[in-house]
Task: inverse folding
């Protein structure tokens, strides 16, 4: 199985830069952009703030690198998991499986994407500077299914908001629903059950004739 | 149609307190808890910071009042829109319609809930102090459908994460998907199309036999 941190991260030679990125992803995921401080990232890596600034001039640049890494890894993961799958429905389910598995294995990414969608900034100028690959991945698969006559003409954005959103909520909500409702998103039985639901929803979304 | 700000807000006599709450909801929605400043709320209301502190001792208390108001209004909206509906499927669709209409009419609430799910805090101690009514609303309806044998035994939390999540993404994502993908969630045709999708997904989630 393709790693959720490959191949973008492996190409980088600098171990410190990678440690900073890993720590920053946790800090941005837990605290959000506004509250995150370079000092917290430095503390987590065990270096001093100037060592971060040597690699990343400021918080915005560090955040951008984290977000770019998430979406590049996610796209690579999707490409690997949909390669050779030609049937439109099988491709759609493979894409949604890849996104779900990616979020479960990298919950910091799920939380950062959840924040992205709440935030207008810091990517207000071009909110999809890094996420466009993900949008194109789902658009291409939905368009192919519609063209082949296998899917009803449903906009890809409805599948994104209506079905793919579930993978992010599933990961982020695990400990937020109160006593007696906590679950482990990585538990194999739990994950299998949610994956089956996502498949059911995806099939219904693209094939159901009725509103 | 029941107002999305009734009846909680009407019961309060103090117009200034209400103006502070309304402005704070916008500030918390746009900036998040960490970045929000009481000064921004004061500026939006046209009062000075001490006038806010007279009503709300601090940022946490002001945030709590906003979150409490959102979930109380949302619950009242659901109660009004499911009253007299007895068939389990019709009740489930009425609940999801109520949530969707509530989010569309009050996008600041959608954005605050989206943030809640990204954040561990400020409700880390009891994350559902205010949202428990919403969780109970959906649990009661799903449980009734399962008991009546109309629904397969699907946990309410899967409907929450898999189907209801869509209403929040639909509202929050409207201007975040880049050029050519922007939509108006309140546009009647757009909303009708997304509502039909939510109905399709809800029916599939509770009645589909296969995974």
Result:
């Amino acid at each position: 199985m393709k790693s959720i941190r490959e191949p973008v991260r492996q190409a980088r030679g600098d171990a410190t830069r990678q440690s900073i990125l890993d720590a920053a992803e946790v800090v941005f995921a837990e605290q959000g952009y506004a509250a995150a401080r370079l000092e917290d990232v430095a503390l987590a890596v065990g270096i001093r703030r100037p060592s971060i600034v040597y690699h990343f001039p400021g918080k915005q640049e560090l955040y951008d690198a984290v977000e770019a890494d998430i979406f590049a890894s996610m796209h690579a993961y999707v490409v690997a998991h949909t390669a050779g799958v030609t049937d439109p429905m099988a491709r759609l389910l493979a894409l949604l499986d890849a996104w779900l598995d990616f979020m479960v294995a990298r919950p910091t990414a799920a939380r950062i994407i959840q924040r992205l969608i709440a935030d207008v900034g810091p990517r207000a100028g071009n909110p999809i500077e890094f996420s466009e690959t993900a949008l194109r991945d789902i658009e291409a698969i939905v368009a192919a299914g519609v063209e082949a006559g296998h899917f009803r003409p449903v906009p890809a954005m409805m599948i994104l908001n209506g079905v793919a959103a579930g993978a992010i909520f599933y990961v982020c909500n695990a400990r937020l629903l109160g006593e007696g409702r906590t679950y482990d998103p990585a538990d194999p039985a739990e994950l299998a059950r949610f994956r089956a639901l996502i498949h059911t929803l995806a099939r219904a979304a693209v094939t159901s004739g009725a509103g």
Q: What stands out?
A: Chain A touches chain B through 54 residues (CB under 8 Å).
